[in-house]
Structures are given as C-alpha cells and as structure tokens.
Amino acid sequence: MADQNKTDTDSKFYNEVLSPSELFAARSRSHKIPVRGQKDFFPDDSDEQRQRLEQSLNEHWSLISEERVEKLGNLVKATWIPSENIVELQSPAGKFWQTMGFSAGGKQFLFPEEALYLMECGNVQVFYQELPLSIQDGYEKFLYSSTLRLQEYQVFGHLKRLGYLVHRFHPSSETSSYAKQLNLPQSRDRAGKQLKRKRSASPTATSSHTEAQEESTADRMEEDTCGQEGQEDKKLPESHLTISPETSSTQTATASPGNKGGVRTWWMLDDVGERSDHQPASAASRWDFSSISFPDLGSSRERVSSCLVSPDPSLLPGALAVGVCDVDPWRTRINLRDVKMSSKEQMREEEKRRHRSDKDREVRRCSNWAEYRQLMERRQGRRSKGRATHLWDGEVTPLHDPRQPIPTGELLDKISVIKSTHLLEGASRLQASDEWRISFNVYQPDTVADFKKSNPGKPYTRMCVCSFDGPVPDLRAIKQLAFQSGDVLVVFAVVDYGDISFYTFKDFQLPTDVFP
Amino acid sequence: MATEGVETTSEEVPVPGKVSTRYDLEKETELRFEVESGEAVEQIELELLTGMAEVFGSELNRNKKYTFGAGAKIAVFTWQGCSVNLYGKPEVAYVSKDTPMLLYLNTHAALEQMRRQAERDNERGPRVMVVGPTDVGKSTVCRLLLSYAVRVGRRPTLVELDVGQSGVSVPGTVSALCIERPADVEEGFSVQAPLVYHFGSTTPGTNIKLYNKLTSCLAEVYSQRCEVNRKASVGGCIINTCGWVKGSGYQALVHCASAFEVDVVLVLDHERLYNELKRDLPHFVRVVLLPKSGGVVERSKECRRDTRDEKIREYFYGFRGVTFYPFSYEVRFSDVRIYKIGAPSIPDSCLPLGMSQDDTQLKLVPVTPGRDLTYHVLSVSSAEDGEEGARKGIVESPVCGFIVVTNVDTQTQVMKVLSPAPRPLPRHTLLIMDIRFMDSK
Hints:
Keywords (chain B): ATP-binding, Kinase, mRNA processing, Nucleotide-binding, Nucleus, Transferase, tRNA processing
Largest sheet of chain B: 7 strands, mixed
Strand order of the largest sheet of chain A: 3-4-2-1-5-6
Radius of gyration of chain A: 44 Å
Helix content of chain A: 25-40%
Number of strands of chain A: 13
Structural class of chain B: alpha+beta
Family (chain A): Belongs to the SEN54 family.
CATH topology of the largest domain in chain B: Rossmann fold
CATH superfamily of the largest domain in chain B: P-loop containing nucleotide triphosphate hydrolases
Radius of gyration of chain B: 23 Å
Helix content of chain B: 10-25%
Keywords (chain A): tRNA processing
Largest sheet of chain A: 6 strands, mixed
Oligomer: heterodimer
Protein name (chain A): tRNA-splicing endonuclease subunit Sen54 N-terminal domain-containing protein
Number of helices of chain B: 8
CATH architecture of the largest domain in chain B: 3-Layer(aba) Sandwich
GO cellular component, one term (chain A): tRNA-intron endonuclease complex
Number of domains of chain B: 3
Number of strands of chain B: 23
Largest interface: A-B, 92 and 107 residues
Distance between the termini of chain A: 73 Å
Strand content of chain A: 5-15%
C-alpha cells in the first residue's frame, strides 16, 4: 500500500494489483536506509554543510515517498474503534498473534501501538469508516498525548524492531512486595485476569471511556491495598525492631553495672539466700588500726616495737599457734633502690609533695571514701576546665560534642549533608504521580518461542518513556517507579526526536570503610 | 640465702625411673623447688609423709602425690615441721628457714580481725589491694591470703587486675572470682563463673583509660554483689594488680584504690611506692609494707609469654590440656561484628578543638575481617546483639567467653574459630585482642 494514494476510492484501492514487471521493479529496489552520519551541532553557514544536509534530506524524502508493496494474503483486516482506542481484527490474525493483541468477548483486539507497528510492518490494514488508513493516518489517529505519546510509540517500535517483546505495563499485574515476601500463590482473581489478557486501560491515568475508568479505579483501589500491604510489611520488621531495643536495653542494663537496684547479673545473684537485711549505704571508716596490727615494715621504722605479738590462734587457719615474729631482720631486706626519674618526673614529685593529702586538713576530716570522694569532686568542680565557650555557649553549637566518643561511621553519618538513600527506602509511602509512569514490560527476544500472552512471566525490564526536552526524573519519581516495578529493573528510555537512549538507576553502596 | 634445715637424702621406696629425695623440714621452714621449663621435661611429684605442710596456703594431703609440670616454682611450707618426698629431679631444691610467711600470716590475722569486726557491726569486710613491682610474689600473696581466709570459713573475692598474667581468665582481661574453697595445690583456684571484662592487651599502658574504666566497672559490680550477699561483703576482696608502679601505672593504682574504696594496701618490697601511696591515699587507708619472699624468682619475658600461652590453652583444653575438648567451626563475617576498643592515636594537632587524646580510647572501632585476624583471641561480649543502642554498653559488658580465629578465608568471607562451646556463638559482638594464640600442641 502506498502512503500517497489515501484519497483513492474504495474500489480502486482494492483492485490495485501490480503487474509482474512492476513487482520485480519494486522487489529489486534498494532497501537500504540512508546513513545519517555524524551529527552537526552548529550550522557553520558553509556550502558543504548545506549540501550535505540537503542530500540527506532528499534521501529521506525519497525513501518515504516510495511506494510500498505488500502481499495481499499477509494483510489482516482490522477496524479502528476510536471510542475505545483500540483496533478490532476482522479477519484471522497472523503469526504476530502469538505475542501481540488480546481477546475480549470472543473478539480479537490490538492496542493502537501494536496496530501501528503492524501497519508499518505491512501485516495489518486498518479501516476506519470503511476506509483504509494510511500509516500517516495511523500516526495521526492512534497517537494522542492523552493515550499514547509519540515517544512511547517510538520506544515501542524501536524495541520491537530489535526483537524484544513489548507489552503494556499494568500496575495491578504487579504482585505486592508483601505477597512476594509471603510467597503467596497468585490469587485466583489475579490468575484469571492473567489467563485472558484483558484489555488494560491505556497507560495514561485519564481515560475518556467510563468502563476503562471504572477498571482503572478498581485497579487503583487494588493498588492502594497493595500499598497498604506493602506498608504493613514494612511495619512488621519495624515493630519487631521496637521490641528488640527494649529487651536489649534491659539486657544492657543487666550487663552494665551502672544502675543500682535494677536487674542483677548472674555474678551478683548467687547466694541471695544470705541476703543482708541492712547495709549502711556509705561505709564509715571504722577500722581502728591501732588495735588491728599489721606487720608493717615501713611504720615500724618510726616506732620502737620490733616484735609482733603472736596472733590469736582462733584467727588462723587450722587454729595454728605461732610464736612471735621478729620484724627487724626484714627491714634491711626491703627494696630501697632509688628509682631513676627524669627532671619532669621529679618536678611532679615536688608538686605532689607540696599537696600531701595526709597533711591536708580537709582530707583529714574525711573518715571514709565516700566523704573523701565528695571532697575531691568539689575540688574538681571548682577548677573544672571549661570548654571553648565561644563554640559551645552560643545558639549554634558544633554538630558533635567531641567528648562523647562515637564510632567514626556514626560520626560520618552525622556530618553527611546529603543523606544517601536506598531506592526502595520509604518508597511504599509515596503517592503515585501522574507525570511518571511505567509504559511497557519488555521481554527478551529469546523468549519468543515459548512466550505465552496468558502467562508472560517476569519481564526482563520495564520501560519508562521520557523525552530529552522534559524534566529529569527526581528521586521521588525514581523511588516510586522502582517500588511499583518490584524486583524488575526500571529503564528510562529517553527520546531525543528519533534517537533513543536508555538509562537506569541502580542501588549501590558508597564505601563506608572507615577503619584506617 | 641461708639454706639450712635438716636434709637427709635417703632412697626409700624407689619409684621406677625416678629419683626419690626425702626432705625433713623443721617448723616454719619451707622447701623450695623448681621444675625445669621447656618441652618434654620430667615432671616432679611431691608427697607429704609426716606432719603438716602447705603450698601457698593450701594444705597438702598426706600420702597423696602431687604432680608439677615444666616451669613450676613451688614452696612447701610447714608451721610445725614435716617430711616430704620429691620424686624426680628438680632443677633446684633447697630448704630455707628464711621466709616472710609469719609476716603474711600476721597480715591474715589482722584482716581476719577486720572481718570479725565487720561481721559484728554488720558492715563490709576489708578490701585489700596488693601492689608492688613485677616479680615480688603479688599473686602468691593474694593466693595465700585468700586460701587462709577460705580456710577460716570466709568467702572472699579475688579481683584480678593483672592483665598480663591473669590468674583467673585468659590474659588481656580483668576479672573477679568468688573464692569458695582453697586453691588446688596443682591447679590453683577453681574458676567457676568468674566475672570477666575484656581489656585486649597484656599491659595496661596500651589503653590506660579503658583499664581504669574496667576497674570502676568491676568495683561497681562487686559493690552490688556485696549489697545482696552478706558473706561476700564480710569476706572482702583481695585485689591483685599489675607490676607497673610508675607514672600512669601508679595513677591506675590510686584510681583502683578509690574505685574499690580499699581499706588496706599491701605494698610488697617497694619502699618508694609505699611512701608515695601513704602520701597520696587518704589517711584512713592503711598502707602496709611487706617484704618479698626470698623464694621469688624473676621471670623472663619468654617465661611470661609461655605462661600466657599456657593460660589460653588451659581455657580451651582444660588443665594440662586433657579435660576439655573445644569445638572448631566456621563463622561467616556477616554474622558477627568485630570491634577493637580504642581508636588509634592521632596527633593532638589533628584533634578537634577541646578534644583530648583520651576521648578516643574508649571508642569502638569496627574491624574489617581479614587475613590479619588469624590467631587473634576474640572475646565474645555479652552485650545484646542490638543495633545502635546496645553498642554503647559493649565496653562495660562482661565477656561470655573467648574464641580464637584459626583460619580466615577472605574469598568465602568465612573464618574458622576454636571455641569452647559448639556453634552457634551465644552473641555476635566480638572484641579483638592484641594477644594471639597458636594452637601448636
């Protein structure tokens, strides 16, 4: 069929059959697509460039204007139903039916992008109001920004030509992560839906048709529940977590000796039977060392007594009875060697000697450790060295108090201005946006042989189509799409007029190895 | 050294292959003998024939043979006189009349007086810190005093702060142990349910801040125990310390005295330390200077290292390597979190304003498992396997046990460990020690 003769009459169109010689001529034509060559970014006003452009343009024009020759037997008749935005097949479908189209109510349908692609391939002839549509008509009628954008079709066609299987993505067909985690068998409802690949609403959220709208709202509800389920599943480990800190805190409480009266460790617990009824909180100094005689070689130097009386046998193991002990010979044996000290150490010694605690009257007044420590604390407090006041007394203080030691990793987290995030972190709570959506499921070419439309399996990737003119997807959109897609990678197909480039965002961990 | 004593060497009841030597000891004398150190050394057997004798405070049973292996340095003391037989050829063996045992016994008597008073007045018993330079017999004095205390029916607590030569657990730890029976003549105190904290190195100088922190932890837990356990409270505690008595080591001693609120400090053979402590500790603390025993021998570096190794081996294989059968299994890196306590020191000029070097010493630094982990001893912290919250308690959490990494496979991210218990690990927070142990036997 030719692009040019769209105004021809019905009868004439049907009867346009080529003669053998014309057919041969059409067959032997070169089918090469002109090479586009390097891209020129700036017009440099040179004749050379202009000529080159003109030549290339002419080549393209001539290619488009060429009459296309199709085999009548291959053509499947179809009708365009604009109200529903689909194409209904009138004659039995060809081989393409294995991977494209869907049936509903005993009829066979094609999505507009599929129909357009098949038209371009010369497999389908679409009629509207009893008139055949040219490819140009197809582009005009099938592609609306509200249903199927040109870019989306470009990506569709591009992938199809490369051999991939491309299907519309339907959000509800994706099992929720919750169901996946539970390893639920696919629900009957869902399975039924997949058994017959029902017509799904056009990828766009807004659809003119009421039925489609109903369906889409139903889908959305389903999606919502999925979302909730997703949140629940997010909540589960969280609640688990909220339990564990409690237990761990009690555990650490038992482990850390800091809290008194709390839970006690095994080490403190044994022999509780002999628990004392009363224990003075602060042990007063009650030892009368004048009556308790230690064999102190140091002090006996000053005193006269050099003989220890024999200790009370009842104090000794096995009720030993030992005689007196002469201390004198031992005195001479004590290690008296002088310790070599550096001048710095000697200075410190001098300093200490001046602050003899046994001469200190305040210290003398203390009768036990508790009082002594209080005194020391009071003295410490008096000359507590303040930290840099200009840093800490203002309204704005440093991010971290260096006296609180925390692991370097935590510290780095603390000072990180831009927080790193995982793709799926918090994604379940994001609302789906209209601006970004997944358009297609893409399956690999080598799956064509055993591909079933009723059970397509897990797609290879999912396509989100956007344009170079449009905005770059923000983190929110990326997260939301990644969540919607589950464990299938989302690829962004970016269309720059005719050129399509593919981008994807992958989770990766920045190295956080902080150990030297 | 005056070596007197009636020494009659008579060959009676010859044990096949072993020389038997009989020693008759007068009252208040001791027989000292040393067994050669090294591999494949003939063990020495000791038998009490008549009278009564004790080894470091533990009484000997009559007609029972006690075996001592390589490197053992033993003193058999008698209060009333006895005769013993030695089987085998010791490196040195002599009788000495010159022992400070009477002084030690008097010290015990004084402590026992304090315990009586504590019992009467419903107060806590004496807390004793034993200090002194290296190789003066601190551990022996501790053992002696504890054994005497147990023998008169007390339940004292041994607090082991000597991270180099721990008598309770593996080296690199500080620990506390309730003593309920006298030390076994061969094995020492039976180690049942000690309270152990991870220090990670054999000298307190590597991280003095952590050392002091752990001392405080032990003191706190001990005090809590005293509150609920009257007997432990009256029994008091005996604190064994490191031989480091200068600079920070001395400060650590003062800190320990304050943390435990000690009542008595026994200074062994170091007059200067005695005077310093007398000056720096408050007046109500009794500081006592005691002589060291003439039998104390200086241990070489190698000897200390061997004892450390032996202690770790004992942890896994039991006394003399025969009683326990450790397990060996693989642990995935992803299942455990390994930390080192104390960040490496950085120059002061690189530190933020107002921060001092000490602040990094208590930091937990995650350790990336690698081949250099091999042979390191790891402590299994009893801290819950929580996330952030629990991490703060790791330093102050006691240790449930130790494992040794015997092999690291970086390919499969798995390490093989030697463990006293079968898998799985009770907890998944591991603390790395500087100490390494090669399972060579």
